[in-house]
Ferric reductase-like transmembrane domain-containing protein (Paractinoplanes ovalisporus), 445 residues
Amino acid sequence: MTIMTERRTRPDAAAVLAGGTLLVVTALWVSNGGLQDLTGGGALSATGRLLGLWASNLLLIQVLLMARIPLVERAFGQDRLARWHRWTGFSSFWLMVAHIVLITLGYAATARTNPLQQLWQMIWNFPGMLLAAAGFLALCMVVVTSIRAARRRLRYESWHLLHLYAYLGAFLALPHQLWSGSDFVGSPWATAYWWGLWGAAVAAVIAYRLIVPLLRNRRHRLVVDRVVPEANGITSVYFNGNNLNKLPVRAGQFFHWRFLDGPGWTRANPFSLSAAPAGQIRITVKDSGDGSARVATLKRGTRVLVEGPFGKLTGENYTGGPVVLLACGIGITPLLALLGELPYGPGEATLLYRVRDEASTAFRHELDRFAAERGVRVVYLTGPRARSRSWLPAGRTDELTALAPDIRAARVFICGPEAWATEAQAAVRAAGVPASRVHTELFSW
């Protein structure tokens, strides 16, 4: 599974923007009498109202972060957006829990009733609260399955499908907020802000998760051309289509793929291009689950739906000079595409390719051709995983500067499993490469 991380790009501006929206929400709460309620007898309810507003604000920002807005994707990359999405999601959820608890305790204190009885009365009698309760349960399911330990026990396809319930949870809360939340309609400014934020979230999801992919697939009509085994459990798929030279994708990027070959076509899987796009598209997939295993069984002519492209592991800002690429396992795929597209000169490119054994080595003939025709220096790092924290195979203690002598002056691209890529990135930084010239893509979700 592919998620991309890139060097820091305007993160401070993004944090300021998110914090600014929370300040706006707080100011609207104050203007609607929040401070007076806080210092009066309704401190619990007033605090609960504010936390609920923060929760709703972060929930909508979370939706916007993963709405696939091209400008946002290009500015920050999917990995950073995924981290922010996870942070805002968990923060929003716990603020929502605190909101429910404080509002319930506040109302129960006023009515002098049992809090559990008060909660039931609110759910059953307040306008929109039944829908809000259903939405909260949907969000609970999303949060539980987003915990790392739970994710490890789920197939990516199942996790992705369950994660879509976050949209349901967010939008089921809207009637409750409009009917019962005076802070949403208490002033023209509040009404404009909340309707504007809701409208932006809905419009972004419809435009970039539905309309743009539908139009792109209608225009290019990708179909499977052929399926080629590459190594043990590794398969390449070549695709044809209409006007593929106008498909806005670069080497190093990835799509979410749906293969229309039977049951399960609704579940998307992220796969990187493994060759520079030039009239034909190629991906290479390792058999690591149901979604990736079915790739080897695809038939010629199978229709394909794609969503994307995504990712910033590209040569967008590279104009030449030394370049070093570090790949582990199936992480070779986007780096192989980059080798075909980057404008390096003879002898300027070095590929360090980490594989478990010879049978797991993919694209050896293609790499030999790059070495012969473009002077790429290919170093195979073959062997089982080291027990210690190392990006090298067991028994190897090579200095990175010995494997890639010009690395200090190079642009560096890293792709592979998260733990390995983290160690490789640390080694690159220790070798003296500035963070601005290190680009990393992690195979995780």
Summary: The mean pLDDT is 84. The longest strand covers residues 223-231. The chain has three domains: 3-216, 221-310, 323-443.
